[in-house]
Model the fold of this input.
Amino acid sequence: MGILQLDENQIEQIDGMSMDYPYCMHQRNLTDIVIPWHWHEELELGYLETGTSIITTVNAEYTIHQGDGFFINTNVMDTKKNAVPGHTALEINHIFHPVFLSGHFRSRFETKYLNPILKNSQIEVHIIRRGTPLGNSILANLINLKELQQNPDAEFQTRNLLSETWLLLQDELRTNFHGNVCPSENENRLRNMLLFIHTHYSEKLTLAEIASSANLSAREAQRCFQRVLHQSPSEYLISYRLNTAKKMLLETNNTITEIAFRCGFSDAPYFSKTFRTATGVTPMEYRKKRI
Done:
């Protein structure tokens, strides 16, 4: 998921999601790829099959160990990465729009069962640990959901099992959630600037243009990035371009020069030098990892 797909309203589109069936399962290898900052209406309910990963939000950082699960609420801005470089990290993630369980707007399912969680601003991410009855039941269901996806006619079973899991998640949050997240005043500003970068990363961008997307001065944009992401806008832009390039190297047959230009680098030598400095290998050497 190095390249975010955006619709005409600049909302992230999720691979495999459709209007007639708003659910999909992603099996993500986080070993070498960072999931860039993103947000969407869809909910995420998954687990780490192998390794250790980190989910970072504007407000906090969460570590997920092998066998543990996670819930990410609607429209939470987050990024994911492997917690132990050089080791494998595999994520199984069930992604679904709230309507998949609610049926329609303002249904009893939505108002009674979904909204208490969706509209609770304190709930952004919750880690589901192994070893408790509720945690074990949720994790067992998530594993069963994965197995179900091998059946092409599993739509009803998927929704039923996910509904059952949602009820368990409600109990899990009542029992084990102790959050006090306060929405950051910088979050909306940062969303606007990240969205601008994600949309225009292939172009030549200036700090003034990035700042302008959030109606900020260049200095205030710098402060906002440093406060929340602990890096400058230019550092984030380069890391986003490199992460996108990694995905293209593994998933396309585009030449190194084509990838360089599509990711916003001025020429192939500069791209190769920047890539090697960041990863320790050349783009061609990285591509050899492709199976």
